[in-house]
Amino acid sequence: MTFILRIKMFFVLMLAFALFYAIASIVSVIFGFYSIAFAVSFACFLLFIQYLIGPKIVELSMGVRYISKEEYPELHEIVEELARKAKIRKPKVGICNLSIPNAFAFGRGVGDGRVCVTRGIVELLDREELKAVLGHEISHLKNRDVIIITMLSAIPLICWMIARNSIYVAAFEERPAQAIIIGLAAFIFYLITNLVVLYASRIREYYADLGSVKLGNKPSALASALYKIVYGSARSDESELRRVEGLKAFFLNDVSRAYNEITELKQIDMDMSGKIEEDELAALRSKKIRVGFAERIMELLSTHPNTLKRIKFLASLG
């Protein structure tokens, strides 16, 4: 599974940079090297600012409160054990006063890692499930996923800047026809590279699921946690869901798709116990899953894979 994920990620990176090279070459030939150099420099500057202030924005937006070992000894114990197994520095541990059951990791790097859980997930999951979820988040930190996706995001940002600047050139400079063509091409490349970045993000989620299992967590524990989180998210207050809409990429799943995923997940919970048992996950290995057309389209526009497909992937790791 690791080899397949690496191959997919390799081709995604190749495609992203090939598209960037194509649009950069066209712009350089028509408008000169300095045009593309400015776009690249400005995009990198914006992403660097985002890199510096991003953690503080997440903390303020989510209402993160960092907790001591005395307050939540079990949570700290789990994070410490997982960090030791992952061979990274123990991240800060935080909690958010949200009923939406979820967890997320962020920070500027492995040495600046922060792992946070919501009040809803602490109340919903048992210890094994919570440990599997935190293993997923620790794996994100170990794999430097925030940095990887941030760097990839520079490519659509540059394409967007070229498209926008081409409008200015077409309006106020010479060669308007060429500028319009470049602008349209850059906008198309912007849409395509955005889809590529989203696909890369979905691959990183599979990597983190695999990473959690490699840290010693049972695939069934993470599958059961995902199952419960989808149901919990679907029951969450709409005002809370709107509040986290802009930061849902950090979460374990795409909370805005949870309600639509419930129907599909009924294919797994055979005894309707509300969790995924090991025998149910084992039965899924040889079972063909059914993902609706609408959900497949929604997945293309999401940072997270379809939950049913993720659970199917976890079944293959058992």
Question: What this model shows, in words?
Answer:
The chain is globular, with a radius of gyration of 21 Å. It is mainly α. It has a 4-stranded mixed beta sheet, sandwiched between helices. The termini are close together. The protein has a domain at about 1-50 and about 155-190. It has helices at about 1-30, 35-60, 75-85, 120-125, 125-140, 145-170, 175-215, 220-235, 240-245, 260-265, 280-285, 295-300, 305-315, and strands spanning about 65, 90-95, 105, 115-120. The protein has 13 helices and 4 strands.
Q: Nutshell version of this structure?
A:
With 318 residues, this protein is mainly alpha-helical. The protein is 68% helix and 5% strand.
Oligomeric form of this entry?
Answer: single chain
Principal-axes shape call: globular
Strand order of the largest sheet: 1-2-4-3
Classify the beta-strand content into a percent band: 5-15%
Q: What is the residue-averaged pLDDT?
A: 88
User: Helix-strand pattern, N to C?
Assistant: HHEHEEEHHHHHHHHHH
End-to-end separation in angstroms reads: 12 Å
Radius of gyration: 21 Å
Major pleated sheet: 4 strands, mixed
Q: Considering DSSP H and I runs of 4 or more, what fraction of the residues is helical?
A: 55-70%
Low-confidence stretches: none
Q: Report the total helices.
A: 13
DSSP strand count: 4
| Helix and strand composition category | mainly alpha
